[in-house]
Amino acid sequence: MTYRVCFVCTGNICRSPMAESVFRARVAEAGLDDRVEVDSAGTGGWHEGDGADPRTVSVLDEHGYDSAHTARQFQPSWFARFDLVIALDHGHLKALRRLAPTPEDAAKVRLLRSYDASAGDDLDVPDPYYGGMDGFEECLEMVEAASAGLLDAVREDVGGQAA
Hints:
Layout: E1 3-9, H1 15-29, E2 36-42, H2 54-62, E3 84-87, H3 90-99, H4 103-106, E4 109-111, H5 133-159
């Protein structure tokens, strides 16, 4: 059985594709890519069909991550296929939980930085879209820091599933 994770931000061109790419790399490094599927989407459809923001692509490429991406909008019906829906900030968390068809689906939604023990109370990954490259670098640092804890949690969940 495949375990499915979806990262969600606003437009699916900055934070969520970055998180998808980084986490997919971590899953592959852990040898779980045959059991864990990683995806991303946005709460809105403004950029549907577009590639990732060029600054996201630049930062991902510079750090050795895959930057291929096509934006899309998260749909309520997708909750049925995902085991975990990872929000990049509290606004996304609230929007996704409102969108969830059932309480069980709402419980699948978590904040990415909740998997980073060093994050403290600041669990939002700031939107780098309106800033410079330093915001995209900071976003990558936050995503990478949280990915280790998320991988541990997913590894634990996958360990409990039949292959």
